[in-house]
Specification:
The complex is a heterodimer of chains A (304) and B (391). With 304 residues, chain A is α+β, with helices and mostly antiparallel strands. Chain A is built from eleven helices and seven strands. In chain B, the strands form four sheets. In chain B, strands 3, 5, 6, 9, 10, 17 and 18 form a seven-stranded mixed beta sheet that branches. Chain B has a six-stranded parallel beta sheet with strand order 13-12-11-14-15-16, sandwiched between helices. Chain B has a three-stranded antiparallel beta sheet with strand order 2-1-4, covered by helices on one side. Classes of the chains: A alpha+beta (304), B alpha/beta (391).
């Protein structure tokens, strides 16, 4: 999956793709100028060769940019680089060139070759990896709450308050200095449990935690409280990273997080805002009952 | 209790549903004495608003008697007679503090749905789709009113239901439409749509100092009401070319401000109307913006377009070039009803306006389905239907 690739790697690949297209177009449109620039004699035969090389570059570039798995096209670039180096080596040896310019060009191509090899290898690993191991899911959500960082921090730091605004959370119990035990209600009366450890606690600014021991849900997260500009309360920012588990827990979480990752976090933050700003959580009959609810007729009546 | 339920497109039925209960501390339960069918209910009826589910209780214009309050409601007590604003507002968020009550940040439990469609979520509304909270509406015997310490306004006994009922929506909506025009002495205001909201927009424009109001519709009874009850000059868009007529009436300059009190289901004679109807039917646009386009093209340079007709999604062929090059201002919004309740109640008490002039039909709640059909097809010169709870 494209989205699961390391973004830095993807940026490098894209850079190489655009470089490929740029160089290729130059080779096709202005082979003579380019030949003089890199210090080889401008002949009709070399122009034709250069145009062919240009087509190859453009094809590789388009391949890299348009594919979600660009590794094969990056390897194609490596093969092209080898051809370029061979051609440049030949001209250098023939003595029909400006040695300084052609030498610099050779060094430049060698550098690009190194980047191509590196990127192609890492892309290859990444795409192989994703088929065997599950990637961590990372989420970040922010909300503006019209209360001070101090007030929100203190509310959050009192673990008893958490089930109030975190959907599905049944209980959080303090089990040690910085440790707590979490239980959420899963469908079918099942429970999902984990232990968490607070790893950083900067009063009024930030809390970071991590699950530990035999946790059902392996995750880490943090919440930051930043004073909003203009005296407009606080930006509450939650970062969450977890490894999707399998089995019942996996399917439960998939159901809650699945279709729109982050929605549950978003809903929880909204509920926190509602509790702190209004003292209650907005509910309509429809939002707390699934299917027919107390403000709707029975299913029979509705279909009658 | 009995409630008027949306079953499907052009299908509403009065069904027996469970009575509402207090769910939150700041809730109240209101026993409804009078409720109404709104033009915007027709958008639901005709199936143009997304997020409706079979069985949803309709209605967002209602008033009645408080029969129960949550422990967080200190300003209301059993027996109080109240009018309930159609937007649900917490009174304490950023929007509410800025008196933008229909944009309350805390009252839509389904905010994420609205965010998908509109980028950000407005307030929850009574009986107006799950996108706006899935709150049961007021075409019923009882309604649960969240944030009852903020919304409902107590009304004096000497005023009849029919004089104050429309504080819930259409009077403040029309008033806000006129207020957004920033009316200056000597101004001419054009109003598209002479339904109840249009009538209140006309009246309000005069209350706010307009020199002339020109009202546009095609139904003779609505144009007559605009002339005789609201004091407007009128134009029938099926009889005259509106842009030419407005130019002619304003010495070529165009009205100083134009109010769109029509919204997403406007009509036009000829090809324009057909074009938009077809595009809307095949879902290439969700709303038919014929009146809005006309308002923009007619407005004077530097004038204001005030949109109070309801739109749901996307429109097509929007004349942005006219808006930009002619320095037009577009102002919009679901009415921030809470901010108008007290001042407009005062105007009613002083006798500056009697909102009951728009009522043409009175029915029992049980007859709501006939009411919808009649209102939709403008049968029997129907302009506004008030539904009375069973005695």
């Amino acid at each position: 999956m494209n989205s699961q690739q390391n973004p830095r790697l993807r940026r490098l690949a894209n850079g190489l793709g655009w470089f490929s297209i740029g160089l290729g177009v130059t080779e096709i449109v202005a082979p003579g100028t380019l030949a003089r620039f890199i210090g080889i004699r401008d002949r009709r035969r070399s122009r034709t060769t250069m145009r062919m090389y240009g087509l190859r570059e453009v094809a590789a570039g388009v391949g890299i940019l348009s594919r979600s798995r660009p590794a094969p096209w990056l390897w194609a670039r490596v093969a092209g680089d080898a051809l370029d180096l061979a051609s440049l080596g030949k001209t250098l040896a023939s003595g029909e060139s400006n040695r300084v310019k052609a030498g610099l060009a050779t060094a430049a191509v060698a550098g690009v070759t190194a980047a191509d090899v590196l990127c192609a290898r890492q892309m290859g690993c990444a795409s192989n990896g994703s088929s065997t191991t599950v990637k961590d899911v990372q989420l970040m959500r922010t909300i503006n709450i019209d209360r001070s960082p101090e007030e929100i921090y203190n509310y959050w730091r009192d673990l008893n308050n958490l089930p109030r605004f975190m959907k599905h959370l049944a209980s959080v119990e303090r089990t040690g200095q910085n440790q707590s035990h979490w239980v959420i209600n899963a469908p079918g009366g099942k429970k999902i449990e984990w232990d968490a450890q607070i790893e950083e606690d900067e009063p009024n600014r930030r809390i970071a935690w991590r699950s530990w021991g035999g946790s059902d849900v392996d995750h880490s997260g943090s919440v930051q409280f930043e004073r909003a500009p203009g005296g407009r309360g606080t930006f509450v920012r939650v970062n969450l990273s977890y490894t999707p588990p399998g089995g019942l827990i996996g399917s439960t979480l998939a159901k809650w997080f699945g279709q729109a990752p982050g929605l549950l976090v978003e809903e929880n933050l909204r509920a926190l805002k509602q509790v702190l700003e209004t003292g209650e959580i907005a509910r309509s009959d429809a939002s707390i009952h699934s299917g027919m609810h107390s403000a709707q007729p029975s299913a029979q009546a509705a279909t009658a | 209790m009995k409630a008027n339920c949306w079953i499907g497109k052009k299908d509403v039925r009065v069904e027996n549903v469970p009575d509402p209960k207090i769910l939150n501390p700041r809730d109240a339960i209101v026993k409804i004495t009078s409720t109404a069918i709104c033009g915007s209910d027709l958008h639901l009826y005709n199936g143009y608003v997304p997020g409706m589910e079979s069985g949803d209780v309709l209605g967002h214009e209602f008033m009645g008697e408080v029969v129960e309050t949550g422990h967080g409601v200190n300003n209301l007590k059993k027996g109080d007679r109240v009018v309930v604003p159609f937007p649900i507002a917490c009174g304490s968020c950023f929007s509410c503090k800025h008196e933008l009550y229909s944009l309350c940040e805390n009252s839509n439990p389904n905010a994420w749905m609205a965010e998908k469609l509109w980028g950000h979520s407005p307030a929850g509304l009574f009986g107006y789709s799950h996108l706006l909270g899935g709150y049961a509406g007021g075409q019923a015997e009882y309604a649960r009113v969240p944030f009852a310490d903020v919304g409902p306004i107590k009304v004096p006994e000497e005023l009849a239901d029919e004089q104050v009922l429309f504080l819930s929506d259409i009077f403040p909506t029309g008033y806000m439409g006129a207020e957004m025009c920033n009316i200056q002495p000597g101004d001419t205001i054009a109003v598209w749509g002479c339904g109840p909201v249009g009538q209140f927009a006309i009246k309000s424009a005069f209350l706010l100092g307009a020199e002339r109001v020109i009202a546009i519709d095609r139904f003779p009874e609505r144009l007559r009401m605009a002339r005789e009850k609201a004091g407007a000059e009128t134009l029938d868009y099926e009889a005259v070319d509106i842009r030419d007529a407005l130019k002619e009436m304003t010495g070529g300059r165009g009205p100083d401000a134009c109010i769109d009190a029509v919204g997403m289901e406007s009509h036009a004679p000829g090809m324009t109307g057909v074009y938009d109807k077809v595009k809307q039917t095949v879902k290439l646009e969700t709303d038919r913006p014929i009146a809005l386009r006309q308002a923009i093209m007619s407005c004077r340079n530097g004038g204001t377009i005030s949109v109070i007709g309801v739109y749901g999604g996307l429109i097509d062929k929007f004349p942005m070039g006219a808006v930009m090059n002619r320095s037009l201002t577009i102002r919009t919004g679901q009415a921030h009803v809470h901010r108008y309740l007290r001042p407009l109640l005062e105007r009613i008490q002083k006798g500056e306006i009697d909102p009951s002039f728009v009522i043409t039909h009175r029915m029992r709640l049980e007859d709501a389905p006939q009411g919808f059909a009649m209102f939709k097809d403008k049968q029997d010169e129907c302009i506004k239907i008030v539904l009375k709870a069973a005695a």
